[in-house]
């Protein structure tokens, strides 16, 4: 039994290390598709960005890092703020943009 628990714990730890790293930002001021497109364009141009997803309804922007890259929270916050929006919260999550999109679609 102990070997099974240890094996499962190791498998879970290994799986988590392969999960995509993303930053989820809660942003005030986004009200239309033009807002979303502007933020997406700015964040997509950052070197470590693999993918961006903007959810206007929930006022969130999710940014996935390229493999082996690290996202700079301060730079992301600066880009969004410079675009004219307020960043309320930033959090690092272990999900890909595809996983985030699937979760949003499942909630609808």
Can you give a write-up of this model?
The chain has a 4-stranded antiparallel beta sheet, sandwiched between helices. The chain starts with a helix and ends with a helix. 46% of the residues lie in helices and 26% in strands. It has one domain (20-107): Alpha-Beta Plaits (2-Layer Sandwich). Strand 2 (49-55) and strand 3 form a beta hairpin. The protein has 108 residues and is an alpha+beta fold. It is built from 4 helices and 4 strands, in the order αβαββαβα.
Considering DSSP H and I runs of 4 or more, what fraction of the residues is helical? 40-55%
Give the distance, in angstroms, between the N- and C-terminal Cα atoms. 41 Å
Beta-strand content estimate:
25-35%
Please state the oligomeric state of the protein chains shown: single chain
Shape: globular
CATH topology: Alpha-Beta Plaits
How would you summarize the topology of this molecule?
Elements: H1 2-18, E1 22-28, H2 33-44, E2 49-55, E3 60-65, H3 73-82, E4 86-93, H4 97-107
Antiparallel strand pairs: 1-3, 1-4, 2-3
Offer a quick outline of the entry.
With 108 residues, the chain is α+β, with helices and mostly antiparallel strands. It is built from 4 helices and 4 strands. It has helices spanning 2-18, 33-44, 73-82, 97-107, and strands at 22-28, 49-55, 60-65, 86-93.
Task: Offer a few descriptive terms.
4 helices; 4 strands; 46% helix; 108 residues; Alpha-Beta Plaits; alpha+beta
């Amino acid at each position: 039994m102990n070997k099974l628990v240890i094996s499962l714990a190791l498998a879970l730890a290994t799986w988590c290390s392969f999960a995509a790293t993303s930053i989820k930002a809660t942003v005030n001021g986004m009200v239309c598709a033009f807002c979303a497109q502007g933020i997406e364009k700015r964040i997509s141009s950052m070197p470590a960005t693999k993918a961006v997803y903007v959810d206007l309804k929930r006022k969130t922007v999710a940014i996935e890092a390229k493999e082996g890259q690290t996202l700079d929270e301060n730079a992301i916050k600066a880009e969004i703020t410079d675009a004219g929006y307020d960043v309320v919260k930033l959090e690092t999550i272990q999900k890909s943009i595809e996983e985030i999109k699937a979760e949003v679609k499942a909630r609808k």
